[in-house]
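Re-run requested by the PI after the first attempt was lost when the workstation crashed. Everything re-entered from the original request form. Ligand of interest: protoporphyrin IX containing FE.
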Amino acid sequence: MNRHPGAWRAIGALCRFWPFLCRTLGFAARRSSVKQVLTRPKSFSNTAHNANLFAGEFLIGMDPGQDYDADKALFHGLLSSLNVQADADAEALVRSRRLASARTSFDLIEDYLLWVVFNAIRPAMGLAAPAMTAGSTAFQPDEELERQYLHEVRYVAGQLFLGAAAPTSIQRRAELCADSLRARVKCATALLRNAWAGNAAARPFDFVFRNGVGFAWVSHPVTVQSAALVVQELLERPKVYTMLLEKARSLGQHVWTCEQFRQEVRTHVIELMRFRPVFTVLSRDVPRETEFEAGGRRNAVCPAGSSVTILSLAAQFDPRGVPTAADYCPHRDWGREADSRFLMFGYGSRQCPARDQSVEMITSALIGLLTLPRLTLADPWGRRIRYDGPLIRRMRVQAAWGVPPAGGHP
Ligand code: HEM
């Protein structure tokens, strides 16, 4: 279902039309219902994620409280220490130049996105990053070890997308990768504590360890997957793609420095994410009986011990308050619904704390791709995009190398 955003939109439209479906299935499908559920963390609990956190307890699955506040404060400190735009730009520039001079087809994830995102996030881990990727404190920077580490954390995060629907073999792999991640972080915890001195001084080992593990799997894989989905959506919109390519081409060398162009690309990234978000649904536990407004005359009653499925993708297309919601319209005026423009990152106090940083990383990645000639999905084995459970594993693309690229490449 994660591969078919259109199916979720159809389910959401049905649920909005027949609210009894929401009541029966425990679905929140209207934008207003989704916002309502997501802003009541005590009645609709994030502990629904816990069963899928194979690497251990972490912020995203905690209820509000002392531990939650401490972890969240650390997270904000780490995020504010990053300069994702500069670091993602730098890597995107180097990688896209390398791809342009190789002039062969390439794997969007393996040869590009993995590294643009990693380069932007890695500084948060300081010297612990190479130790974690090498699995040893006697580390040598090595791209192949980094690649293996990035694959492992991807499977840990993948469990969050699939949940109990994951086949046993996939769950087993996620468990093994989670064990490996914990071992990696264990050997790097002292280095992490040094790296986080400003944010985690005098904090116990458990605190640094828990957040080190969590930071590793929550940050990188989701952003890479989201960026791949953004590119997939863009390739399916040739007019938008052509317009952005032409603007990039006209800017030449200034493509990396023109703030107006960056803003334009950023706006498209947000709209492309809306159509193809990485989390199509979210779920919440219901610790005690409660209700939410599902539309219709009666509320949806949620018995204690049940769970609610939040159709966050579908809610973005709810025409109430945003009549043009179904259209691709990056510059729309969201009016009174402006706060729900970023629903793909959750909503309310539990919204993704790295929302803006993620958009910046994907914007940098996309600008790099816009400096290449037009990309199309390559099809060497008959399967254009290769999946691994809910994750995109491979996305081979080829550029029209005969056509002159935009600025930035000799
Ligand atoms: C495009 C990339 C990303 C997307 C689409 C995304 C999406 C989300 C969503 C939907 C949630 C809310 C989950 C819920 O309410 O159940 C969330 C929470 C969270 N995200 Fe992200 N995320 C992204 C990148 C990142 C990055 C790069 C980091 C870290 C550097 C991060 C850290 C977190 C954390 C810690 C939470 C839990 C917040 C809380 O419960 O208070 N995310 N993310």
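Saved to the shared folder this time. The radius of gyration is 21 Å.
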